[in-house]
Amino acid sequence: MHIGVLTLNLTIDSADSLKDKRQVLKSLIAHIRNAFNVSVAEVDENDIWRRAVLGIAVVSNEARFANAVLSKVVDHVEGDFRVVLDGYSIEML
Q1: Nearest Cα to Cα of residue 29 among 20, 17, 42
Q2: Which of 28, 22, 83 is nearest to 48 (CA)?
Q3: Which of 29, 30, 93 is nearest to 58 (CA)?
Q4: What is the rounded distance in angstroms from the CA atom of residue 1 to the CA atom of residue 4?
Q5: With a threshold of 0.90, does the pTM exceed it?
Q6: What is the pLDDT of residues 32-76, one digit of tens each?
Q7: How confident is the model at residue 88 (pLDDT cuts 50, 70, 90)?
Q8: Residue 79 to residue 91: CA distance in whole angstroms
Q9: Which three-class secondary structure string do you get for the chain?
Q10: What is 2-92's CATH topology?
């Protein structure tokens, strides 16, 4: 069993309040979950309006498959106009 963990550091330039931030993140998280069948949660920067850190996990019987899924998530987030991807890391356990 292989577990892939992706950490995304995001900036949300359009957020002028925590409500704005939550609205963007709720939509983004739901879309990632539905499109890629992964687990997603906000894991840091909870009270900062324009910053977010998302943790994404996938379980697979092949490390290569888990890495491919997480790479597709990164590509998807890079293409989302609502957020700016400041950095990311992928770890296999």
Answers
A1: 42
A2: 22
A3: 93
A4: 10
A5: no
A6: 999 999 999 998 877 788 899 999 999 999 999 999 999 999 999
A7: very high
A8: 22
A9: CEEEEEEEEEECCCCCCHHHHHHHHHHHHHHHHHHHCCEEEEEECCCCCCEEEEEEEEEECCHHHHHHHHHHHHHHHHCCCCCEEEEEEEEEC
A10: Alpha-Beta Plaits (3.30.70)
